[in-house]
Amino acid sequence: MTIWHQSGKGGQQTVEQAYADAGQPQHKVTEFIDDMAAAYAWADVVVCRSGALTVSEIAAAGLPALFVPFQHKDRQQYWNALPLEKAGAAKIFEQPQFTADAVATTLAGWDRKTLLEMAQHARAAAIPDATERVAKEVSLAAQV
C-alpha cells in the first residue's frame, strides 16, 4: 500500500518521521495537495475528514472512503458522511474509534471487489448537477 498523506502546514517533518518509525517505506507526505483531481485519480480509497465539500467531491470522484468526522457538538461532519455510509460507499470512524489497528483492519477487509462496489455506490450517490438544481430552485423561489 502506498499512502499520500496531507499533513497540513508545518506537519510534514513530524508525519515523515512517524512513517519512518512505523517502517512504512511507501508514502508521500505533502503539507497540502494542490491538485485534488489528480489526487483523487491516483487514490483507490480516501481516509479523510468529512466536510460537506469533501464528501461531495469524493462522491463525484466515485471513491470509497473512510471518514473521520471532526468532533464538534453539532456533529455536522458526521451527518455529512452518513449518506455515503448508508449508500455503502464509505465507513465512518468517530475520532475515538480512529486507531491504527481499526483502520488497518478495515482497509485489509476491503478487497478489490469491495472497493469497486463502494466506488459504484459513491458515484451513484453523487449529484453532479447540484449547482444547476439549486440555481433553478432559487430562480423559482425568486419568481414567487
Automatic annotation (TrEMBL):
Pfam families: Glyco_tran_28_C (PF04101). Keywords: Glycosyltransferase, Transferase. Residues 3-133 form the Glycosyl transferase family 28 C-terminal domain. InterPro entries: Glyco_trans_28_C. It comes from the Bacteria. GO terms for molecular function: undecaprenyldiphospho-muramoylpentapeptide beta-N-acetylglucosaminyltransferase activity. Its EC number is 2.4.1.227. Gene3D superfamilies: Glycogen Phosphorylase B (3.40.50.2000). This is UDP-N-acetylglucosamine--N-acetylmuramyl-(Pentapeptide) pyrophosphoryl-undecaprenol N-acetylglucosamine transferase. It comes from Leclercia adecarboxylata.
